[in-house]
Amino acid sequence: QTGMFTYDPGFTSTASTQSTITYIDGDAGILRYRGYPIDDVAEGGDFIECCYLLLYGDLPTPAQKEDFKTRVTRHTMVHEQMTRFFTGFRRDAHPMAVMVASVGAMAAFYHDSTDITDPMAREIASIRLIAKVPTLAAMAYKYHIGQPFIYPRNDLDYAANFLQMCFAVPCEDYVVNPVFARALDRIFTLHADHEQNASTSTVRLAGSSGANPFACIAAGVACLWGPAHGGANEAALKMLEEIGDAKRIPEFVNRAKDKNDPFRLMGFGHRVYKNYDPRAKIMQQTSREVLAELGRKDDPLLEVAVELEQVALKDEYFIERKLYPNIDFYSGITLRAMGFPTSMFTVLFSVARTVGWIAQWKEMIEDPEQRIGRPRQLYKGEVERPYIPIDKRG
Ligand code: SDX
């Protein structure tokens, strides 16, 4: 038992972390935040409430929620010097590259909340990350499209504020679409935490050495970017666009089954879920709400996605391997409909997952048994052999 990782020397890949935050039953397709089913948290509350729940372990009272919301809202501006930091990037840089850099750069701007042994510093760093990562994400988007940065507004809720920072322009008033704001708020909640996924494990491992909290979250952003993880939402939408028409679904399903073809159905399969990802159900319903708001109930991309899901779920290959749609399968359709380019999909995932990374980081840091993570290996290299001087080599 090394606090963060327990490992049995007989098993090289079994490393389990103890946590009280998120519970997943992959076979039953169950996900709960602090014991509350994801459907109830996503439908009954909002993302700020979800952040409070993940960070402090229980649903807030109205007064606690209002206080927490105010603390987050009043930290949404970033140090003005950070705007200059952005100007060093190429405009066509992928927004996730900018996110890895700018979240890490918070370690160079916010010195007074990095003493991880001080509970108050940990609290301030947590609030700053939840509050400022959306602002940095919106800045990455604005910089990418060559528009001026838009400041956060304290009169708007979390998701609405993010939408206005992304889509408002100085030349005219911007009115947040309440259906989009509600949908995005729910999407943030669905993506908030997910037990010991690759990026969360990255944050825990980085944090176990006592590293700067902002740098640890930047490490999580870097890991999430991969197409096998958070990058799958971008890849899934591109796949649906490439399929284009339900008539081409068999061609892509056959490619996904062909061992000689590296193509996989993006947004399908999961390391843990061997049943339907409960988040994917809510995501599909959310995509229908947003498309209906746009008068696009029969959106061709959604039709391809629903038909692809039906075909795959009846196919022996997918049934045998228990491959179901995951959260990334429908999220891209929804985000694209709201106006986000595919390059921003994983950025939005990182905005939402920041609270999960922080909650898991705090739990690890505050565990008195916690020690530096040190996964072991099964050595499969050369046995000992004599060194050969270079003049004796062939
Ligand atoms: C996320 O861990 C988390 O919680 C992550 C996440 C979170 O909230 O943090 O849920 C977010 O990352 C969701 C996953 C997004 N990724 C994708 O959608 C990419 C496409 N999916 C695959 O790459 C894959 O399913 C993984 C990476 C998600 C899971 O891989 P596994 O569990 O290791 O599965 P595997 O690679 O061992 O595959 C098992 C079998 C293999 O076939 P066989 O070798 O047994 O014949 O299933 C096949 C795979 O070839 N397979 C697929 C497939 N996924 C697995 N075949 C076709 N299409 C797929 N999508």
From TrEMBL:
Coiled coil: none annotated. One of its GO terms (molecular function) is citrate synthase activity. It catalyses: oxaloacetate + acetyl-CoA + H2O = citrate + CoA + H(+). Keywords: Acyltransferase, Transferase, Tricarboxylic acid cycle. Pathway: Carbohydrate metabolism; tricarboxylic acid cycle; isocitrate from oxaloacetate: step 1/2. It comes from the Bacteria. Pfam families: Citrate_synt. PANTHER family: CITRATE SYNTHASE (PTHR42871:SF1). Belongs to the citrate synthase family. NCBIfam families: cit_synth_I, PRK05614.1. This is Citrate synthase. It comes from Flaviflagellibacter deserti.
